[in-house]
Amino acid sequence: MHEITYKTITNKDKILETFKTIVKDSKMKHTYALRNCAKGKTEVAFVITAMENNKLIGYAFPEESVHPSISYLSYIFVKENYRCSKNIGKNILKDFCKAAKNHKSDTITFWSLEEAKGFYKHIGLKSANNDDYFTLGIDEALQIIEKSKKDKKIRPVQPIKMAKPKELFCYFK
C-alpha cells in the first residue's frame, strides 16, 4: 500500500489535463459536466485530487458560481475500492473547503445523492431541512470535518436499489 497524496490544482492547463485523465479512465464515472470540463468548455477555479502511486483515485471540483462568495461542490468522487477507508472522501472535502476559502468563498453548498448521505452524516454534516441540499459556512464545515471521529468503525452495507447510478461512497451504520 502506498501513501495517498492530496493536491489542489489551480493552473488552468493542469485542470484541463486532470479532467482529461478523469474522462479517459473508464473505471471513473463521467458525466456531461466532466466531459465539458475535459473539452475546456467549462471553467472551474480548482480541482482537488487524491492520488496513490501516481494514479488518480478521487477528486472534487466546484461548479461555476454566479456569486463569488459561494462555492458549489459540483462533484466529489472516490474510486469504489477506496471508499469506506482511509478517510479519502473526508480529506478531499476538507481540501475543497480550504481551496474555496482561498478563492474568497465563505459558504459551501452542495446537493447529495441518496447513497452519499451516510458519508456526510458520518463526518457530521447535516442539511438544514433534513433533505439532500446542504449550505453552510466554510469555517463551520471545516470545524465539523476536523471534529469527526477518525477512529470510528465504518461498516459498509448493501446500497438500496435505486434508478440512479451508484456514484459516491457507501452507506454507514
Your description of this structure?
The structure is a single chain. The chain has 173 residues and is an alpha+beta fold. Helix content is 29%, strand content 23%. It is built from 5 helices and 6 strands. The protein has a 6-stranded mixed beta sheet with strand order 1-2-3-4-5-6, sandwiched between helices. A hairpin with a 6-residue loop joins strand 3 and strand 4. Helix 1 (12-24) crosses helix 2 (32-38) and helix 3 runs antiparallel to helix 5 (138-147). The longest helix has 15 residues, at 88-102. It is globular, with a radius of gyration of 15 Å. The model is unreliable at 153-173 (pLDDT under 50).
Structural class: alpha+beta
Strand arrangement, largest sheet?
A: 1-2-3-4-5-6
The tally of strands reads: 6
Order of helices and strands: EHHEEEHEHEH
CA-based shape: globular
Rounded to the nearest angstrom, the radius of gyration is 15 Å
Overall average residue pLDDT: 76
The major β-sheet equals:
6 strands, mixed
Determine the strand fraction and express it as a percent band.
15-25%
Ends apart, CA distance between termini: 26 Å
Low-confidence stretches: 153-173
Helix content: 25-40%
Number of helical runs?
5
Features:
globular; 6-stranded mixed beta sheet; 173 residues; alpha+beta; 5 helices; single chain
Helices and strands, with pairings:
Elements: E1 4-9, H1 12-24, H2 32-38, E2 47-52, E3 55-63, E4 70-78, H3 88-102, E5 107-111, H4 117-122, E6 133-137, H5 138-147
Helix pairs in contact: 1-2, 3-5
